[in-house]
Amino acid sequence: GSRASAALPPLAKKDKYKVGFAQTESNNPWRLAETKSMQDEAAKLGHQLVYTDAAGSSAKQAADVNSMIAQGVDAIFLPPREDKPLVPVILAARDAGIPVFLIDRDVDHTMAKPGEDYVCFIGSDFIEEATRIGEWLVKNANGKSKIIELEGTTGASAATDRKKGFDDFIAKHSEFKILASQSGDFARDKGRQVAETLLQAHPDADIIYAHNDEMALGAIAALEAAGKTPGKDVLILSIDGEKEGVQAIIDGKIGAICACSPLFGPKAFATMADYAAGKKIPPFIKNEDAFFDATNAKRDFAIAF
Ligand code: GYE
């Protein structure tokens, strides 16, 4: 399409900014920890944070960003719920002269580019997270091989890449088979419902890979309701590292969790300051993630959120 400007808008150097943070939803500890981290850092630095919660709707999140543009915020931090529907408002912010920093999820790079349309993406490498889960599985499967996969929100970069990374890894290990894979929307109750349905269709499944802890905890409830013992009959793997998830490792119900830090505040605001100072910002600023299994879950419990 036609664009008013082709370059990233600059950010004036100021002591205090009015910054938008358009949260996706607030239905799990990961989201709450992320919001708190952004609010705490803004308060610490004395910036005004315009906070919105899209309650799980990409349309509402786009409207929230549009209202931030109308309010004339200096910059916007956005975790795009899906990788395509938020692109038009990212371009609209750019054209309005407001730099956008994507945090925790990215958008489709054929539609918008870091370094051109938005400043950068700050977050985890989701392919790598899924690969680390696969590598742990190969060493710890103990003969288990039949997998049910619970996917995150359809169209979310975190879900797309956690599936791609895992599927690519499994494709190279013919002893494993993915029996079924379906979205549980990154939510505990949806994860429980989808696990229940898929376990009925595939009673021989002995591994569940969930794209986040909330769905893994839902799957544990589904397994227990079906009279199965999580961690024994079915090996469970997930991503995030919330306290209840890491506790489930200690309790022997989850096998391994690749951590995914929700604590974006310090890095997000430091990147904004660097940008205002004219420093070159890399298109991808990668978070380094921890990993939990029975060998360190107790010792490292303090880093769970
Ligand atoms: O893993 C999940 C959340 O986008 C990386 O979204 C994030 C994911 C996180 O709802 O729990």
Automatic annotation (TrEMBL):
Family matches, as SUPFAM superfamilies: Periplasmic binding protein-like I (SSF53822)
Entries under InterPro entries matching the protein: Peripla_BP_I (IPR028082), SBP_2_dom (IPR025997), TAT_signal (IPR006311), TAT_signal_bac_arc (IPR019546)
Keywords for this protein: Signal, Sugar transport, Transport
Residue ranges annotated for the Periplasmic binding protein domain, each copy included: 19-280
CDD domains xrefs: PBP1_galactofuranose_YtfQ-like
Keyword Manganese: no
Official protein name in the record: ABC-type sugar transport system, periplasmic component
